Amino acid sequence: MPPDAPPPPEDRAASTAQAAPVFVARGVTRTFRSGATEVHALRGIDLELYAGEFVVLLGPSGSGKSTLLNILGGLDVPTSGSVRFRDHDLTSWDDAALTHYRREHVGFVFQFYNLMPTLTARENVAVVTDIARDPMSPEEALRRVGLGDHLDRFPAELSGGEQQRVAIARSIAKRPDVLLCDEPTGALDVKTGITVLEVIERLNRELGTTTVIITHNAVIAAMADRVITLSDGRIASLQCNPARASAASLVW
Amino acid sequence: MTALRQKLLRDLRVLWTQAVAISLVIACGVATFVMSVSVLQSLERRAAQYYEDARLPHVFAHLKRAPVSIARRVAEVPGVAAVETRVVAEVTLDLPGVIEPAVGRLVSIPDRGGPSLSRLHLRQGRWPDPGRRSEVLANEAFAEAHGLVPGDRLRAVMNGRREQLIVVGIALSPEYVYQIRGGDVVPDDRRFGVLWMRDRPLAAAFDLANACNDVVVAVTPGASLPAVRAQIDVLLAPYGGRGAYGREDQVSYRTVANELSQLRAMALLVPVIFLLVAAFILNLVLNRMIATQREQIATLKAFGYRRREIAAHYLQFALLIVLAGAALGTAVGAWLGTGLADLYVRFFRFPDQHYSVGLGVAASALGISLLAGVLSVAMAIRRVVRLAPAEAMRPEAPRPFRGGFLHSHGSVGRLSPLARLTLRQIARHPVRAVLSTLGIALGIAVMVLGSFSADLVDRIMEDHFEATQRFDFSIGFIEPSDVGTLQAVARLPGVLRAEGFRSVAVRLRRGSHARLTSLLGLEADSGLLRPIDVKGDPIPFPTSGLLLSEKLAQLLEVNPGQTVEVEVLEGARPVRALRVAGTVRDFAGQAAYLTRGELNDFLREGAVISGAFALTDPLREAALYAKIKETPRIGGITSTRSLIQSFKRLMSENMLRMRLFNMIFASIIAFGVVYNAARITLSERAWELATLRVIGLSRREVSATLLGEIAALTVLAIPVGALLGNLLARLTVRALETETQHFPLVIDPSTYATAILTVVAATVISSLVVRRRIDRLDLVAVLKSHD
User: Fold this and answer.
1) How deeply is B306 buried, as exposed, middle or buried, from its count of CB atoms within 10 A (0-12, 13-18, 19+)?
2) pLDDT by residue for chain A (252 residues), tens digit each?
C-alpha cells in the first residue's frame, strides 16, 4: 500500500480496503487528435483507488478529469500507460472485454442524466437490470434514491434532481464495484444538488461501492476520503480528508 | 418485455408518422411486386399446363388443298409425333339482333370424338352430332361477347351459300387463348369468333371432301423444329403450302408469351424503384434518429450493452417498419393481383381461371424488402456500433460551415437573410439535399412511368388507325378478283371511296433469316392505307421496291437499298429478289408493301385485287352491313371503327384504374420523401427556428425558411423527375420490346404535367403537415435543451 493511502474510514468494510487497490493507474496519457493539432488531455497519471473509497476529482474544465474517469470506466483507452482493475489490465482489453467490464462492474452518473426520454423511471432502471447478473429490482433501486412513488413517470415529468436520482438508481441497481459520477450536480441548483450528493454518499456507505465524483465545485471535496486535483492533465495535488463532511452540511 | 424493447416501441410511437410514410412506400413496392409476380406465375403455370394438357401443336401450316392422306406423309417426317389435318375457313356471320356482320373462322374437328391436337375444352353444352351438318361449338370469348348459349342460331355465308348454324356447345382451345384475327392489332370478340364444326359437313361446304387446307403437328421432345418445318414445307409446297410456322408465330401463343415477358419486366422494374426510395428514406430517418440518440447510444454502451445488442435494437426499428410495409404490400398486392387476373381472364381464356398468391411470392417479397431494409440501415448502424461512447457523450460538434459559393457569390448577397438561411441550409447538407431532390424526382418519375403507357397506346392507335389505316372497312373477297370489282364495292351503300389491294402470303428471306408475313400490294396513290415513316409522316410510295416494317427489316438484317428474297406461298409460288426501298413504322412489326401493279407483275397475273379498303358514311352503315351479309363473294369485313371502339372499351377501364394506382403510388413516394426530409430538417433546426421566433420573427417567416428549403428542392426535382421518368419509360419500352413488336417512346406533355402536379400537391400537403408542427414548436423547451 502506498504511503499516502488514507486510513480506512471506520464505517467501511475494512477487510477489502486493506487488500490490493481496486484501480492502479501508471503513467496514463491520453492524446486527442483534432485535425493537425494534438490535444494532450492526460500527461502521465499515477493513481490508486481503494474499495469503498469516496474520491473527488477536482479541477478546472479541460484539466482531464472526464478523460480520466472515462478511462477508469472503460469508455476510453489511454494512449500510453496502464490501468489495472483488480488483477486485470484494462489497456489490454478489446471492445468486447471493456463492454463486459462496464456491464458487470461499473456504474455511471452523467451531468445531463442521460435518461432515455421515452422510458419511464422504472424502465430506465430496467435498461440496466435487464442485462446485469445480480441486480436489485428497479423498484428497490428507485426506493433507495427516494423515488419509490415516481416509478412510472417519464423523465420529462421529473425535476432535474429527480432525473439525476433516477440516473443514480440506474447506475447502482446492478450493484457495481465502482460508481463513476461526472459532474452529477453540474446541472442542478444547490438544494437539489445536495439531495443528490446525499443519495450518493448514503449509497457509498450502505453498499460500499467505490465512488469517484468529478466536480469543479471545491466545496464538494469535503465529502471525500481523498481529493485528487487535476491540472493540465497531471495530478496537481492529492489530499486526504481526516473526516468526511456530510453532504447535508455543504454550502456553496 | 425488456426495457430496450419498450424503448423501441416508444420510439416508433414518437416517429409513427414517418414510420407510416416509409411503410407505405415499401408497401407500394411490395404490392407491385406481389401483384405482377403472382399474376405472372399463375398465368405462366396455367398457360404451360394448358398447352401441355390440351396438346397445343408445335407446327402450324396452311395450304390450298391437299388430300387427307398427306397426314401419313407428314407423320413420317423424323421428329413428328402427331399430325392432324383440318379444314379452316373464314365466313361472314350474321347474328340475330346484330347489325354488323362478324367474321367466323370455322375449324373442323374429326367426325368422331374431339381433335387429338389442340384439344377442345367443353365449357357448356355438348359436342356437335356427327350426323347433323349445322351444329357448331363456339369459342367462349365470342359466345360471351354475343351472349350466345347452346341452342342459339346464327347464319353464315359459307362458300357463297347461306347456311344456318346451331351452337350446341361453348369451348376453349389452346390455339385461341387469345382470340384475335391474324393481322389485327387489337382483339374484337364481337366481330371475330372461332367456331368448330364436324369435318364432313365443313369439308363438303368448301369442296374439300377427303381433303384439308390446314395441318398441325406435334413433335417429339428434342426434335429440331426448323428441320421439321423445312421438311413439312417441302411436302406441302405442291399443295399450296403457305409455309409452316412454329408456336412463336402463332398469334395467340405469341401474344400470351409477349404479355408474360412484359409482365416479367414490370415485375422487376417498378418494385425496385419503390424499394430504392423506401431504402433511401429509411436510411435518412434512421440516420437522423441515431444522430438525435447519440447520447442514448453512448449511455447504453457505458452501461455495458454490447455492440450487437445496440445494433439489433436499431435494426429491429427498421425491420418493424419494413415488416409492416411488406405485410400491407402483400395484402394490397394480392388484392390488386385479383383485379389484374380478372382483367387477364377477359383477354386470355384458360380452362383454369384460378388465381392465388403463392407462399413463395409472399416470402420473396418479404425477403427482398427485408434485404432492402437491412441494406438501407447498414451504414447508419455501423456508425452506431463504431460510436466511441466517451465521444458520443458530448454533443456532436457543429459541422464547419464556410459559406463557400453561397457566401461569396454576389447575387446571394442581395437575397433576404431568410432566403440566405434557406440556401445555406441546403448547401450545408448537400448530400441530403441531393438525395431528397432525387426522392421527389422519383415520385414524378414513377408517375410518368405509370401513365405513359396510355400515351403509348394513344400513339399506337393514332399511328395505326389515323395515320396508316385510314379506311373504315377492309373488305376481303373470297377469291382474288379483277380490279373491275372495285366498281361494285364503290356502289355498296354508303361507300364514299374505295381502293383495291392485293394481298399474298410470302416468306421473306435474307441470309439465314426468314419470316412469314403477308405482302400487301397498294395503289401508288393509296390514301386509305398510308404507310408512315419512323417519324410518323406519310411516306411517298416508291415506284418500285418494297417498303418493310422497320422491325421486320431489323430481323432480316436488311437496309434500304439492299434486296430480300420474296417467296410467294400461293398460286405459282414465284420467287424473286426485291429491293427494299424504305422502312416504315408499324406496331405489329409485320408490314411489307409493294405497289399493286408491281405485285400483280410479280405474280404474273393481270390487274387483280384481293379486297378493298373503303371509306364510308357512318349514317348508312346499317344498309352497308345488310348488303354485305348477302353478298356471297365477300369473305370477311373488318370495321376500323368497331375495332377502335372495342379496344377503347377494353383499355379505358384498365388504364384509368392503373393511372389511379400510379397516382396514389407517386403521391405516397413524394409524400414519404418530403415529409421525412422536412421532419428531419425540423428536428435538426428546431433550435435555430425557435431562436428566430424568440428574436421576433413571425410563424410565417419561420415556416418560410424551412418550407422554402422544401420548395427549392421540389423545384429542382421537377426537371430531374421529368428526365428520370423519360429514362424509366425508355427502359420500359425496351423491356416491353419483343421480337416483332417495337414500341415508340411517347410521353405526352400532359403526362409530365399530371405527374408534376400530383407530386407538387403531395409536397404541399406534407409541407402543411410539417408547418403545423413548426407552429406548435415549444420555444422554451427547445431553447432549454442543451444541444
Assistant:
1) middle
2) 444 444 444 444 433 444 579 999 999 999 988 777 888 999 999 999 999 999 999 998 889 998 999 999 988 899 999 999 998 999 999 888 988 898 889 998 888 888 888 889 999 999 889 888 889 999 999 998 889 999 999 998 999 889 999 999 998 898 899 999 988 988 788 888 898 899 899 889 888 899 999 998 889 999 999 999 999 999 999 999 999 999 888 887
Preferred mutation among B7, B292, B303, B314 to probe A, highest tally of A CBs within 10 A: B303
What's the start-to-end Cα distance of chain B, in Å? 31
Nearest CA in chain A to B295: A114
CATH topology assigned to domain A53-77+101-247: Rossmann fold (3.40.50)
The minimal CB distance from A112 to the residues B303, B390, B786 is found for B786
Asked if B307 and A95 come within 8 Å (Cβ–Cβ), the reply is yes
3-class secondary structure for B465-521? Answer: HHHHECCCEEEEEEEEEECCHHHHHHHCCCEEEEEEEEEEEEEEEECCEEEEEEEEE
Dump the DSSP string for A123-154.
HHHHHHHTT-SSPPPHHHHHHHTT-TT-TT--
Q: List Cβ neighbours of A50 (8 Å cut-off, separation of 6 or more).
A: A5, A6, A8, A17, A21, A22, A210
State the greatest distance between any 2 C-alpha atoms of chain B, in Å, as a whole number: 102
Q: CA B740 to CA B23: how far, in whole Å?
A: 40
Q: How far is CA B636 from the centre of its chain?
A: 30
A124 touches chain B (CB under 8 A): yes
**Spatial CA neighbour of B530 closest among B508, B499, B484, B551:** B499
Amino acid identity, residue A115?
L
Q: How many Cβ atoms are within 10 Å of B649's Cβ, its own excluded?
A: 11
Tens digit of pLDDT for each residue in B29-43? 899 889 888 988 888
Residue B444 touches partner A, C-beta closer than 8 Å: no
Kindly report, residue by residue over B386-438, the tens digit of the pLDDT: 877 776 666 555 555 554 544 545 555 566 767 777 777 778 778 778 878 88
Query: Which residues between 276 and 335 in chain B have a beta carbon less than 8 angstroms from any beta carbon of chain A?
Result: 295-296, 298-307, 309
Looking at the complex, report in whole angstroms how far the Cα of residue B664 sits from the nearest Cα belonging to chain A: 34
Residue type, position B455, single letter: D
Residue of chain A whose alpha carbon sits nearest to that of B294: A114
Strands B121-125 vs B192-198: parallel, antiparallel or unpaired: unpaired
Distances (CA, A) of B598 to B430, B503, B507, B604: 67, 12, 17, 10
Alpha carbon of residue B314 to chain centroid: 40
DSSP state of A96: H
Beta-bridge partner residues of B529: B469
Helix (H, G, I), strand (E, B) or coil at A39: strand
For residue B140, pLDDT over 90 is answered with yes
ipTM of model: 0.79
Tell me which residue has cell 456507505: A205
Which 3 state secondary structure label does DSSP give B17? helix
The domains of chain A are located at 53-77+101-247
* Per-residue DSSP letter, B462: I
Q: What would the grid cell of residue B336 be?
A: 390488386
* Neighbour count for residue B513 (Cβ, 10 Å): 14
- Least Cα separation, residue B1 to chain A (angstroms): 10
Contact A75 B3 (CB under 8 A): no
Handedness of CA B580, B585, B589, B590 (dihedral sign): negative
Which residues, 6 or more positions from A237, have their beta carbon under 8 angstroms from its beta carbon? A227, A228, A229
CB contact under 8 Å between A76 and B305, yes or no, is no
Exposure class string for B278-303: b at 16+ Cβ within 10 A, else e: bbbbbbbbbbbbbeebbbbbbbbbbb
